[in-house]
Amino acid sequence: MALRVLIPEEKIQARIREMGAQIDRDYPDGTLHLVCILKGACIFLSDLARAIQRDATIEFMGISSYGRGKTTSGEVKVTKDLDTSVEGADVLIVEDIVDSGVTLNYLTHLLQQRRPRSVRIAALLDKPDRRLRPVDVAYVGFQIPDEFVVGYGLDYAEKYRNLRDVCVLEQTP
Ligand code: PRP
Question: What is the pTM of this model?
Answer without folding.
Answer: 0.95
